[in-house]
């Protein structure tokens, strides 16, 4: 009914098919055909074509009034949807592990907000195995993950690289035997300076040492088992844990060894009760 309301309102405003066609940048025959199409649909004439200039019939006057109301509703709706889209664009929800959300994202937040002060960032802790699902369901706008999600609807971008390091209680006797491979806390933080790099440790030397392993929902569970398998043994698991930081502090207490991301020592206080390989 109101599909061609803009054309009919233009004819009513110009009081002429030819002038309305000119204003609308269309042809008069096409415009006249569309008006007649609406009149056939309604079963009434909208214009009195016997007058000069053209005038509206009673039905035409009512049509124009209603068309103007429809146009107002459309504009109001358009503005509201623009506001909703704009509000959605001003909030970003980023997911990651507790480690990411606690140690890495705060600095990223500062850097991001320096360049985008009008956008609000929200952090959402999530287990690594649920990040892909939350992205696909729209619960997250982006995620930091150590495993690349293999899904066609998710776009990935490499951000940084990490090494996996072995954290060992400093009091373990084995450290004296492996001094050529071992870093104390300060030396580990400086390992990338010229002349400070040590070779990777032969992991088989830790075959009889108890391991603190993260649970199967964490990528380091499978990585630890694979690294140990490549070294020729299965780790002797003393504890299964949910958080990497918990594993690190238990190593400091002498409870066992664990594999960690190399970024962890950058976010904890120096500690002489742990060494790294």
Short description:
The protein is of the alpha/beta class. Helices cover 43% and strands 15% of the residues. It has three domains: 82 residues, Winged helix-like DNA-binding domain superfamily/Winged helix DNA-binding domain (Arc Repressor Mutant, subunit A, Orthogonal Bundle), CATH 1.10.10; 54 residues, Periplasmic binding protein-like II (D-Maltodextrin-Binding Protein, domain 2); 113 residues, Periplasmic binding protein-like II (D-Maltodextrin-Binding Protein, domain 2, 3-Layer(aba) Sandwich).
How many discrete structural domains? 3
CATH topology of the largest domain: D-Maltodextrin-Binding Protein, domain 2
Mean pLDDT: 87
From the spread of the alpha carbons, the general shape counts as: rod-shaped
Output the CATH class name of the largest domain: Alpha Beta
Kindly name the structural category: alpha/beta
Percent in helix = 40-55%
| Largest sheet report | 3 strands, parallel
The low-confidence parts are none
How many E-type strands? 10
List keywords for this structure.
single chain, 277 residues, alpha/beta, Arc Repressor Mutant, subunit A, D-Maltodextrin-Binding Protein, domain 2, three-stranded parallel beta sheet, three-stranded antiparallel beta sheet, rod-shaped
